[in-house]
Design goal:
The complex is a heterodimer of chains A (299) and B (202). With 299 residues, chain A is an alpha+beta fold. In chain A, 38% of the residues lie in helices and 22% in strands. In chain A, a hairpin with a 5-residue loop joins β10 and β11. The relative contact order of chain A is 0.19. Chain B is built from 6 helices and 9 strands; from the N terminus they run βαβαβββαβαβαββα. Classes of the chains: A alpha+beta (299), B alpha/beta (202). Iron/sulfur cluster sits at the interface of chains A and B.
């Protein structure tokens, strides 16, 4: 049994991790942005990349959130059934968001639906959003933290296709989403694609997909090939940074899938912007933590 | 060899620019977004700031109140300009504003307003809020504070504010629109090529 003290400690750790995320991009995103920056040779893309990197430097130096939109907070939990704080995790994560909102500080981005009132704490009914997966019987937990900004969340879309439309329909859907709202979502984008039965499963998978580290691939070779084809194809559109046109469009394309009903193909698309603020932290059974996405961090 | 605009901006200053140019701004910059536009255009209220030859920024900043009427710009990233499309043409006509800064492009009404009244729309790179905040030398005053921090009109003095990428010039060009047309023109062939390789259902 975990003690109150341990719960408090985990709250503090999660609050500090959340605040850090607003100010520093994860290693894989930084590496990929650095790579894409080198590919661009036009004056517009270059000055935009220079400004982006300058902004990240200044954010670190002044200890400020790198983008003013620090998003709505979402957590993706993959826990063992015996994780000591499993039953208290919702209150721990909610409290951590309140704390990070004060300390970072984060912009107030939680509006109670129907009341249309900003809570001022980034928390509210079922916010932060928590996605739960019980993945084993052990005592560890891995948590992705994601800041869903307005601009990069807007392109999100899901739809159920008829089997006759096939994977070709999936490809068309992804391209339509990216060439419409994607252009305004601060490219280069990280594109998540979910393929499943219905809208909600496909949409959820697409969001989980952009939590994955850039450079990882779907275990199925055909799906991995689809990822590659979509990535190359979207890059060939040449959105460039901020959609101002250039040599590349995306930081990556990640596909997640489930088995599905044979009469339908559910497809979901989620996009992350260049300021893709997400991070992963792992807790072991003794509640010792390890940050997996940002090197050299002590919380 | 980047150009610098200085407020008050003249018609000639605007006319020398073409969509795709990179400029920086010296002088006065006023934040104005949804409700500011709505008040002027829909409710017919007088703007408490003289914008003739001036510049506005579509943004809802984070401002620190330092007390005694002194403020500091903490973070001021541009917001999506398209939300103001409904109002911008009238806004330009009524205020005489010469430079509109925001994120993403704007539509045909703004293009028309810019052409007729000699104004431009420019893009500040999204997500670069700290860079922008550091280019604000001083917040000189604030108007319409009753609208709350994001919607109030923050009148700032800026130095080398940018990069600003001209997206709509006074000649009727719209950079974002032509980019979108280009992306869409490329799309069909790419989709077809990929589709040939993903016929997994047989
Ligand atoms: S899309 Fe991302 S980088 Fe752009 S303004 Fe929104 S949160 Fe910031």
């Amino acid at each position: 049994m975990a003690t109150d003290r341990e719960a408090q400690e985990m709250t503090g750790t999660m609050a500090r991790f959340t605040a850090l995320l607003a100010k520093r991009l994860p290693d894989d995103v930084l590496t990929q942005l650095g790579r894409l920056r080198k590919v661009e040779d036009g004056p517009l893309p270059r000055i935009v990349y220079d400004t982006m990197f300058k902004n990240l430097e200044l954010a670190a130096e002044l200890d400020r959130p790198c983008c003013q939109d620090t998003g709505a907070l979402q957590f993706f939990v993959r826990a063992g059934a015996r994780f000591p704080l499993l039953g208290r995790l919702r209150s721990i994560l909610t409290e951590a968001v309140r704390e990070a909102t004060r300390t970072a500080p984060l912009r107030h981005n939680a509006v109670e639906t129907f009341e249309e009132r900003n809570t001022g704490t980034n928390t509210g009914t079922n916010l932060p959003w928590i996605d739960w997966e019980i993945v084993s019987d052990d005592a560890t937990a891995e948590i992705d933290v994601y800041m869903a900004g307005g601009g990069c969340t807007l392109p999100g879309s899901a739809k159920v296709l008829m089997p006759g439309e096939g994977y070709e329909g999936v490809v068309q859907f992804v391209f339509d989403v990216v060439t419409s709202y994607g252009v305004n979502a601060c490219p280069p984008l990280l594109v998540g694609v979910g393929i499943s039965t219905s809208v909600e499963t496909a949409a959820l998978l697409s969001k989980r997909a952009i939590q994955r580290r850039i450079g990882t691939h779907h275990p199925n070779p055909k799906a991995a090939e689809l990822e590659r084809l979509l990535e190359d194809g979207l890059n060939a559109l040449g959105l460039g940074p901020q959609g101002l046109s250039g040599k590349a469009s995306v930081m990556g394309v990640h596909v997640e899938s489930t088995a599905r009903h044979p009469s339908v193909i559910g497809v979901g698309v989620s996009t992350g912007c260049w300021a893709h603020r997400r991070g992963t932290i792992r807790f072991d059974g003794s509640l010792r933590h390890q940050v997996l996405t940002h090197h050299g961090v002590t919380l | 060899m980047s150009k610098v605009l200085k407020t008050p901006i003249s018609d000639a200053g605007v006319e020398q620019l073409t969509a795709g140019d990179i400029v920086f701004l010296d002088g006065s910059l006023v934040t104005c977004r949804d409700v500011g536009h709505r008040r002027l255009v829909e409710r017919g209220m007088e703007l408490p700031v003289d914008l003739r030859g001036g510049a506005i920024l579509h943004a809802g900043p984070i401002v620190a109140d330092r007390g005694g009427g002194r403020f500091e710009m903490v973070s001021v990233g541009p917001t999506t300009s398209m939300r103001m499309e409904k109002f911008e043409k009238d806004f330009i006509a009524r205020t005489g504003v010469k430079l509109i800064v925001g994120k993403g492009g704007m539509g045909p009404e703004t293009v028309e307003g810019c052409r007729r009244h000699k104004a431009i729309h420019a893009i500040f790179p999204g997500g670069c809020a700290v860079v922008a905040a550091r280019q604000v030398e001083e917040i000189e005053r604030v108007e319409w504070r009753d609208l709350g921090m994001p919607e109030a009109l923050w009148v700032s003095r800026v130095s080398r504010f940018g990069p600003l990428i001209v997206s709509i010039d006074a000649k009727g060009n719209n950079l974002v629109d032509s980019n979108k047309a280009l992306f869409n023109a490329r799309k069909a062939a790419i989709v077809e090529e990929i589709s040939r390789q993903v016929r997994f259902i047989r």
